[in-house]
Design a protein that fits this description.
Blueprint: H1 3-27, E1 40-45, H2 52-68, E2 73-78, H3 83-96, E3 100-103, H4 112-120, E4 124-128, E5 138-142, H5 144-159, E6 167-172, H6 178-191, E7 196-202, H7 208-222, E8 227-232, H8 235-247, H9 261-269, E9 275-277, H10 280-295, E10 307-310, E11 316-322, E12 325-327, H11 333-337, H12 344-347, H13 353-358
Parallel strand pairs: 1-2, 1-3, 3-4, 4-5, 5-11, 6-7, 6-8
Antiparallel strand pairs: 9-12, 10-11
Length: 362
């Protein structure tokens, strides 16, 4: 072999090693240049008793991810209201190699160690609907203090001159849900000093059965003639409350949230006054877009995180807070029907046909 040939072979080998080093270096950078079919996202939702999660949130998020990254792998988990189960599910998602977690925390505080574990593994976390503690990368939800304010204002409006003629009962959400604390604070900011609160409860796990028992206890303690209204933090609780009120022969203003189908029907029937619609699709689409950007190694654009919030553990988190809407019997068609949550046919079953006709919904 000539010296010239040896030199050519040596140069070719060096070039190959150099290219290999560059390729290895590029692979070592999480998310850098990642293609759509390499995107792996874990979706962790908290429970299924509230109808929104399986009917709306999950399919909307999954559809948007597939639209933005057609080859994406989506690993879905539902914690069934168990904080321990959700922590185990985070471990599973990390073991599967998910690059981003969309996390709706069962317990915002106890999940902090799992969020930290994800950060340590180089995995990004998008907090969805509830702001988990720990080093979260982005957050999307509704203005939850505003939700409580709207509920409180609607209750006051429905009470009218009866506001100071008796007492109201407040049934707040789960003490482990940071959103519940914000709803509660927002409602109190409106109601305090304008009504007398006879009984107030926090309701573990947002459980309608607990709400039913609490309401029955409040009726027994206060007397049914003393209760002029009920603040309910969401529609699931309102379902349990409405049953207790009906059993006691009471029909007073009752709030809610989430625009569940049964709540819309109670509004038509006159056993619930309002609910709060938080259109799920804009929230789900935003979370999906955040997650895909992070999985592909991109920065989330400012349009998706125009503000910053502070979590319970003190982290400053880029966020998008959407605007909630009050739904009453007069605007059902312009809200939940127009937004595609339900069709008139779904709402106006035979049991509610007369009420629908009276409100012009048919």
């Amino acid at each position: 072999m000539t010296s010239t040939l040896r030199s050519a072979i040596a140069l070719a080998g060096a070039a190959a090693l150099s290219l290999g080093a560059v390729a290895t270096s590029g692979a070592a950078q999480p998310g850098a240049g990642r293609q759509a079919d390499e995107v792996k996202i874990g979706l962790l939702l908290p429970e299924s008793k509230t109808t929104r999660y399986e009917k709306f949130d999950r399919p909307y998020i999954e559809d948007k991810i597939k639209e933005l990254a057609p080859g994406a792998q989506i690993d879905y988990y539902n914690a069934a209201e168990s904080a321990t189960t959700q922590q185990q599910q985070v471990n599973t998602a990390l073991a599967k190699g998910d690059q981003v977690l969309i996390l709706d925390a069962v317990d915002a505080k106890s999940i902090q160690s799992s969020v930290q574990k994800a950060r340590d593994a180089g995995v990004k976390v998008v907090a969805y609907d509830r702001l988990a503690q720990g080093p979260v990368d982005a957050y999307v939800s509704y203005d939850n203090h505003k939700v409580g304010e709207l509920q409180g204002k609607a209750l006051l409006a429905a009470l009218g001159d009866k506001a100071d003629s008796g007492e109201i009962v407040m049934q707040n959400g789960s003490p482990t849900d940071p959103n519940a604390a914000e709803f509660k604070a927002g409602a109190h900011s409106v109601l305090d000093g304008k009504v007398k609160i006879g009984k107030e409860y926090d309701t573990p796990n947002w459980d309608p059965n607990n709400a039913n028992q609490q309401m029955a206890g409040a009726i027994s303690a206060l007397g049914k003639d003393k209760i002029v209204g009920v603040y309910s933090a969401n529609d699931g609780l309102a379902a349990g409350i409405a049953t207790a009120l009906k059993a006691a022969g009471i029909n007073v203003p009752l709030t809610g949230q989430d625009a569940q189908l049964d709540a819309i029907q109670r509004i038509l029937a006159g056993t619930q006054t309002i609910t709060i619609e938080k259109p799920y699709k804009p929230e789900a689409d935003t979370a999906a877009a955040m997650a895909v950007d992070l999985a592909q190694g991109k920065d989330i654009p400012k349009s998706l995180t125009p503000t910053t919030v502070t979590s319970g553990s003190g982290e400053k988190v880029p966020a998008k807070l959407l605007t909630p809407v009050v739904v009453d019997k007069d605007n059902i068609n312009d809200t939940v029907v127009k937004d595609g949550l339900y069709s008139v046919e779904e709402i106006c079953t035979p049991a509610y046909a007369d009420a629908c006709e009276k409100t012009g919904l048919q």
